[in-house]
Design brief:
Distance between the termini of chain A: 35 Å
Radius of gyration of chain A: 16 Å
Shape of chain A: globular
CATH topology of the largest domain in chain B: Rossmann fold
Order of helices and strands of chain B: EHEHHEHHEHEEEHEEH
Order of helices and strands of chain A: EHEHEHEHH
Number of strands of chain B: 9
CATH class of the largest domain in chain B: Alpha Beta
Structural class of chain B: alpha/beta
Mean pLDDT of chain B: 96
Strand content of chain A: 15-25%
CATH architecture of the largest domain in chain B: 3-Layer(aba) Sandwich
Number of helices of chain A: 5
Largest sheet of chain A: 4 strands, parallel
Number of helices of chain B: 8
Structural class of chain A: alpha/beta
Helix content of chain A: 40-55%
Oligomer: heterodimer
Mean pLDDT of chain A: 94
Strand order of the largest sheet of chain B: 3-2-4-5
Strand order of the largest sheet of chain A: 2-1-3-4
Low-confidence stretches of chain A: none
Strand content of chain B: 15-25%
Distance between the termini of chain B: 39 Å
Helix content of chain B: 25-40%
């Protein structure tokens, strides 16, 4: 992959869902340790990633998110036993749907970490911001801009 | 329950034609339980179609609504205004639901978003398996509660056939032989001797072979007014 961004002035808007256990604690630890991560990410709390609903993921894209990701407890260490596995299964289903829709499944991802892993929390934000910067804006926004431009002409 | 699965997004898009105002109608009964046509699936499909149509350059106004049961007029009537207001109704109920909408709303254009597959049960999370073929003349009483019509690939009444190998069916090693299941269960219950009674040829007129079926229960009907 090229390291030169295709959309130089583009700042991704990313929605991240995190669970109330490891995800929240990792965010809190990152704050306490003053670990910096891109400001492109807006966080939405979930009681557990087992509460992930494909409706939420699609709604984020429909409302303009360029990328979406989930932060969950490590696999095998979910506070609700297998909630994160359920979340992962839904993320995988949503990725296929996004491919079929034309948004692209690679705009969605899931990261697993324990509450003490502040660096992993920041890395997830960096990884997604870099990936989305390379992929460019949400195709819905691109299409809307093209349509508006055509109407002007 | 009636088990169904959603058609591909491409097939659903092709069914929509040039309709601009699309109502996705979910059903709150069987297809909700098998996660193919309930409130959640209706919302996901609506969102998917809105985005896909926008990217195709032909944005559609796609909304969703779920009624308790599509197969009864009383529940369908609660959606009357929305159905009449739509250019097209995409039903994600079973085939009964689609036809109920077509019968109740003669001017509505309705298309199916699901493929209705069978009557069955969830054998594990995310897995549904056929159990009943609605043959109209139940034989479960002589086969230990395992249906030879739905679970034997050949619907044999006096099985198994020569294709039963190691307890599996010749059509697919993942499919258990229905008659092996029957034999094992009857053996466990100490009722193997029942299988010595040969079953006579089945009257398939009570099944689909007799044409569309109908049940009339006079004890539930009210006298027609003159």
């Amino acid at each position: 992959m090229s390291s030169v961004p295709v959309y130089p002035s583009f700042e991704p808007e990313i929605t991240a869902f995190y669970c109330g256990y490891c995800g929240y604690m990792a965010a809190d630890t990152a704050g306490a340790l003053k670990v910096q991560y891109p400001a492109n990410v807006k966080f939405v709390p979930l009681p557990c990633t087992g509460k992930t609903d494909i409706r939420y993921l699609l709604a984020a894209f429909e409302q303009g998110a360029d990328g979406v990701y989930l932060v969950a407890c490590p696999l095998g260490n979910c506070h609700h036993v297998r909630g994160n596995e359920r979340g992962l299964a839904r993320v995988n289903r949503a990725k296929k749907l996004l491919d079929e829709i034309g948004i692209g499944g690679n705009r969605l991802d899931m990261f697993f970490m324990s509450g003490s892993q502040a660096q992993a929390f920041a890395d997830a934000a960096r990884t997604m911001t870099a990936r989305i910067r390379e992929l460019g804006p949400n195709p819905l926004k691109v299409k809307a801009a093209q349509t508006a431009k055509q109407k002007e002409q | 329950m009636i088990v169904a699965e959603q058609k591909t997004l491409d097939e659903i898009k092709s069914l929509l034609g040039d309709a601009r105002k699309v109502l996705i109608l979910g059903c709150g009964t069987c297809v909700t339980v098998c996660f193919s046509g309930g409130e959640r699936e209706a919302a996901v499909l609506a969102s998917s179609l809105r985005m896909a149509s926008q990217l195709d350059g032909h944005p559609r106004d796609v909304t969703d609504l779920t009624v308790q049961r599509q197969c009864e007029w009383e529940y369908l009537d609660t959606a009357t205004d929305r159905i009449k207001d739509a250019d097209l109704v995409l039903s994600i109920g079973c085939g009964v639901g689609v036809q109920a909408i077509a019968e109740r709303f003669p001017n509505a254009w309705v298309v199916p978003g699901l493929n209705t597959k069978f009557m069955g049960l969830p054998t594990e999370q995310g897995v549904w398996t056929e159990r009943c073929a609605a043959c109209g003349d139940c034989v479960l009483g002589v086969t230990g509660g395992v249906c030879p019509i739905a679970r034997c690939s050949k619907s044999l009444l006096n099985g198994p056939c020569g294709g039963s190998e190691g307890g599996h069916c010749e059509i697919n090693p993942d499919v258990p032989c229905g008659w092996q299941l029957i034999y094992d269960r009857m053996e466990k219950l100490g009722k193997l001797e029942m299988l010595m009674d040969l079953q006579p040829p089945k009257n398939w007129q009570k099944s689909r072979d007799g044409g569309p079926r109908k049940i009339v229960r006079e004890d539930l009907r009210l006298p027609h007014e003159e």
